[in-house]
Structure formats: structure tokens, C-alpha cells
Amino acid sequence: MKVIYHCYGGSHASPVAAAIHLQQLPTTRIPTAEELRQLKFFDTVPPSFHGTLVHLGRDENGHDIFIIGARNHSQTLLKTLKGVTRIIGENEQNYLFADVKPCINLIMRLGGFLSREVGLIFPGRPLVTYGVQKAYPKILALVEDTRNRLVRIQAGGA
Fold it and tell me: Which of 11, 71, 75, 117 is most buried, taking the most CB atoms under 10 A from its CB?
């Protein structure tokens, strides 16, 4: 299976979700600001990178983990990705899409806008980092749900 975590910009929520899935971030506590800043792509993705599918690794069960920033076009992008899988002869059932946007809070939006869109790394990055820490339990729950969906799919259910 291929898991694609998608969010607005691909610079905060989806990299954090993917890192949790890949066991690069803790599941028993909120990560420190330093742990978040060390993540690949955390608060570094430029707006021109939106729509780029990025492979971040393989989980312990061999599932490929991807991220993508879809802005406000996630449904269109997902339809396109599913269509491309059919064109290249792959089964779209081999892809699991996990929308991380519902986990994004106002602090993350403001910090991400300042840092990524306006270029004000300070105060943007500290704000978005704090916002991610506040949203972390929701992101963690989403990843746990995604992992459970993978188990159900592999067991033959939906």
C-alpha cells in the first residue's frame, strides 16, 4: 500500500503525520520544538512546491509513505492521482489518502502564512511550531486511524 498524507501546504501537518507514521516522532508525548524543526520539509516547503508528491520512506510493514500539499484543491488532486493510477495500470485501491487538513488550527494557519507565504520566518516558524504542538493529539489520532484502516484493508475489509 501507498499512504499519501495531504494537507494545505505540505510543510507542516502532512510532514508531521508522515513522521509519526514512520516512527520518527513520539506517540506518548508532544514533540519538542527542536524535534519538529529537525523534520524533513518542516516549514521549508516553498509555495511553488505545492502539488508535488514526495516519498518520505517506508513504514515497518513495507507501506510507502508520501506527502503532498494540495492547497484548497485536495479533491481535484486526489481525483487526478486516482486517474493516473488507472492510466499506468495500477489499482487505485493500493493507495490510501489521509487528509490532515482537519487537524490544522488557527495558530498553524497564521504561522504557516507568515513563514511560507510572506517569508517572515520569525515570528512565523515559532507560531506554526506551537500550533503543531497544540494540534499534535489530533494529528496522532489521524495517523492511528490511518494505520487501523491499513490493517482493515489488508485483512480484506474496507
Answer: 11
